Amino acid sequence: MRRMILLLAVVTAAGCTAEGPPRSEPSAAAVATVAVERTDLSTARTLPGTLGYGVPRTIRAAGGTVTWLPRTGATVKRGGTLYRNDDQPVILLYGSTPLFRPLAAAGLTGRDVRVLVDNLRALGYRTGDQPRRKRSGDAVLTAGVVAAVKKWQGDEGRPVTGAVDPADVVVLPGAVRVSQLGAQVGDPAAEGVLVVTGRKKAVTVPVPVADLGAIRVGQSVQVELPGGTRTKGTVGRIDRDARADEDSGKPAQVDVTVTLGDAKAVQDLDSAPVDVSFAGQSRKGVLAVPVAALLALREGGHAVQVSGGPVIAVETGMFAMGLVEVSGDGLAEGTRVVTAS
Which domain of life does this protein belong to (predicted)? Predict the structure, then answer.
């Protein structure tokens, strides 16, 4: 909820300054007011989501020609071929750091080298000992690693150079399912060769950024499937990238991925619209005003502007449903306060 408080710091449309009441009474036509209400607040939310295989990711290439593609629905694991570019396999490696440069010069150090070393070892290739490193997570491109790369390249039918180019591999967190082909054999290998997802079914829920404060990884949720069947789920991931649709005017949203506890509950569905209920906290019988009625005081804290009266400093509590819990001397149910909308 802190995000909402920060946003309110600029709300001065009611004509209040941080030092007290406005210097001149605004005209009635320019000021909107609302009554303080006594109500119940809850951060519980039920939001629409989509059952599928998680957030899709498009695999792109910088150039070349697509010469082979997997079938839709195929699973690709570490060391597997995602597609062939100019008849050379593009290999899936596991990791969190993509290869962002050619790994060719002996002595090269970095997290991308660590990804290469870890994957070679996991695939059964001996890379030799690593020297001590100054930064945790790094690895060094040693003679032993180069030798392992050459053996790996020979086994994969690639030119044996000992160097790995970013175009040779795709680094993803784990095994993937091919959900869609964006190209055909013979097409230029450029934008959108194919689209992959995770292998396990999951629910993707677009959540407004303002509601993220009430959601956390590991939180239990209820998922309502088509037909009314309910099953349990867990928040498995909260994306870090927000997106906004300027045309629709909707607030910025972030994708939240919910994993399902009972795979059998969705065994007959590959995709479907669902509703996801996020439990939250509740407050009964509290005084509340619209969030837009809050004013940020220069010395800190918040206040509301009583219609035709003074500015009253308030303590804020729960933010929910576009309202905020408030308390303060002289504030009572039915008191009309100025709001920005």
Answer: Bacteria
Predicted confidence (pLDDT) per residue in 252-280, tens digit: 899 999 999 999 999 999 899 999 999 88
Q: What is the pairing mode between strands 169-172 and 88-94?
A: parallel
- Could you tell me how many residues make up the chain? 341
Query: In angstroms, how far is CA 15 from the centroid of its own chain?
Result: 37
Backbone φ and ψ for 177, nearest 5 degrees, come out as -110, 130
Does pLDDT of 20 surpass 90? no
CATH architecture of 2-43+282-339: Beta Barrel (2.40)
Q: Is the pTM of this model over 0.70?
A: no
Backbone phi, psi, residue 150, to 5°: -65, -40
Backbone conformation region of residue 286, classed left if phi is above 0, alpha if psi is from -120 to 50, else beta: beta
Q: What are phi and psi of 107, to 5 degrees?
A: 95, -10
- The HSE-up count of residue 64 (CA atoms within 13 Å, CB side) is 19
Distance CA 124, CA 90 (A): 19
Residue closest to 69 by CA, chosen among 87, 56, 54? 87
